[in-house]
Amino acid sequence: MAKRVRVLSIDGGGIRGIIPALVLSRIESGTGKSVAELFDLIAGTSTGGILALALATPGPDGKPAFPARELVGLYEEEGERIFHRDVWHRMRALGNLAEKKYPANGIKSVLDHYFGDSRLKDAATDVLVTSYETERRLPFFFRSSRARTRADYDFPMKLVARATSAAPTYFEPLKLPADGTADYYSLIDGGVYANNPAMCAFVEAKTLYPGAEDFLVVSLGTGELTRSLRFDDIKDWGLGKWAQPILDVVFDGVSSTVDYQLRQLLTPETGPRCYWRFQVRLDDESCSMDDAQPENIRRLRLFAEQLIRDRAEDLRALCAELVAGAREARP
């Protein structure tokens, strides 16, 4: 019987990454296996890229270091450290007009804590993480498969995580030292072109497994925005008013478009289901990517728990499918 290639994709969305983290915790508890054992490839953008890397980070025994339930703590315990700015930074930035909204100190220290000296080539299963190179003006993909064969593409995981989460207006770009002909890469959040990286992940899986014909793609969202941008409110907006709302529009639009495309490509007329998308609609209070206040974290957790209840049958069916094809984590 031909191998079914299993692909996991996790959207970007800042603090809202707690939603896919909780869904993944449910999948691990329902299967008794780590995400790295259940999937042949994990892809992520921004907060989803951080989750993808953390789920594939090897521990001392070579097995994944972090179960999904521990990564929920990344948001509950570290969110306020990541999205923190003191009064002097706020004044210097003129709110958020003169420079990025947050200094990088907080996110750097959190990523160093989680990833330490782990490198991309050491991933317990294949990972694909998106970023965008601003000087060359091209999409930039971090691939563990390439890192294992090319030393110049084997970057520290903490820097990969920093690159994919460098959202414009929120954090400064990452200047990533590089070997070979280029001396550095200038990288920002991959959400500018692939906030939902599921299509990128599907293409990568077809590249890694050129003979495969059977694919299962599981795509996890970080919340669909419902806040209306009314014509009368936005018709006179200029650069200052659009600067941050336009990111939400781009990220949300990209995510929905990719979902539509994959539904058309991976919905067979007969046979097993090939595509699963788990997404939740958010109210206006919970839509901000950087609201790490405890009350908002609790709201997001409640949204995730409701999603898990509403899709309980789908999750049970998915867990059964994943267990049937589970593999050992990469040694």
Instruction: Report the uncertain regions.
Output: 86-94
Mean pLDDT metric: 88
Helix amount: 40-55%
Shape: globular
Major sheet: size, sense and barrel closure? 8 strands, mixed
Order of helices and strands: EHHEHHHHHEEHHEEHHEHHHEHH
* Number of DSSP strand runs: 8
Description:
With 331 residues, this protein is of the alpha/beta class. 44% of the residues lie in helices and 14% in strands. The protein is built from 16 helices and 8 strands. Strands 1, 2, 3, 4, 5, 6, 7 and 8 form an 8-stranded mixed beta sheet that branches. Strand 5 and strand 6 form a beta hairpin. Helix 1 packs antiparallel against helix 4 (68-76), helix 3 runs antiparallel to helix 9 (157-164) and helix 7 (105-115) runs antiparallel to helix 9. The longest helix has 21 residues, at 245-265. The chain is globular. Mean pLDDT is 88; it is low at 86-94.
